[in-house]
Write a structure and sequence with these properties.
Layout: H1 3-20, H2 25-29, E1 32-34, E2 37-39, H3 57-66, E3 70-86, E4 92-108, E5 112-113, E6 119-132, E7 134-138, E8 141-143, E9 149-165, E10 172-192, E11 201-206, E12 212-223, E13 226-238, E14 242-258
Antiparallel strand pairs: 1-2, 3-4, 3-14, 4-6, 4-7, 5-6, 6-9, 7-8, 9-10, 10-11, 10-12, 12-13, 13-14
């Protein structure tokens, strides 16, 4: 067999082999020689890493309600008031509960600050029961004249505050704020309007837990876990005859446990 015939048979065998070789196998097994420079095949780009799934709503809620939040227990004074005004005659009365040895238990979320400023906000929740038996008979003069109002009040108020110092179990700060949120009050009893010119009591009541606007004022000074807190908050109600302003005021020395 001539040299030309053998070369033709070899070329045919190589062609058959290339036809049966899987696509890309030749590139993967050896570099390609181009002149005097050997160029390795380009590496496949790494697979893009999957981004982690964002946290669920419940994970975010747990983080917000637990991390940096705290429970506060304290001892101090408390006053709960209902102011009643007749929308027709403008007659007015105020009845109170005053407790000079009151215990306090409250919960608040961690503060969130607006950018890098000293302004921040948090949410406060409070629930209390009351039995009012001291009616205002003159300016800042409260006496038992036989009228009574019993009930309960609760509110959730986001508070915007200004803080000087550092919050936390190793910090110290002064904080002042105002808030506007929602509150409920349920009560029943009687009160004398325009006492002492009038001595006839009128019945008042609110038997439904309707959400109403609740405003709040807030002052606090704290050194580490110990602090002094002054708060005033409560909802406003009205019916066909009367307008009611329910207020819960407290001042107490307290200890705050941070989660």
């Amino acid at each position: 067999m001539s040299r030309l015939s053998r070369l033709a048979l070899e070329l045919a065998a190589v062609g058959l082999a290339l036809c049966w070789m899987p696509a890309g196998a030749a590139r993967a097994e050896s570099p390609v020689e181009t002149g005097t420079q050997v160029v390795a095949p380009a590496a496949e780009p790494p697979a893009a890493q999957a981004k982690p799934e964002p946290g669920s709503f419940w994970a975010w809620l747990w983080d917000y309600l637990y991390v940096g939040a705290g429970v506060t227990v304290g001892l101090g004074t408390r006053q709960a008031d209902i102011q009643v005004r007749d929308k027709i005659t403008n007659a007015y009365g105020k009845i109170s509960e005053r407790n000079e040895n009151a215990y306090f238990l409250s919960y608040s979320t961690r503060p969130s600050f607006i950018g890098t400023s000293k302004f921040g906000y948090n949410f406060a929740f409070n629930y209390t029961r009351f039995t009012m038996d001291r009616q205002e008979v003159a300016k800042d003069d409260y006496r038992d004249i036989g009228t009574r109002v019993r009930g309960r009040v609760a509110y959730v108020v986001p508070t915007l505050f200004y803080q000087l110092g550092e919050h936390g179990p190793k910090g110290a700060y002064w904080r002042a704020g105002v808030g506007l949120g929602l509150g409920v009050a349920k009560y029943e009893g009687n009160i004398i309007l325009d006492y002492p010119s009038n001595t006839t009591p009128v019945e008042i009541s609110n038997g439904r837990y309707d959400l109403k606007t609740a405003a709040s004022l807030y002052l606090e000074g704290r050194y580490r876990n110990w602090g002094v807190t002054v708060t005033a908050a409560g909802p406003v109600y009205e019916d066909d005859r009367y307008r009611y302003n329910v207020t819960d005021i407290s001042a107490y020395l307290n200890y705050k446990y941070y989660f």
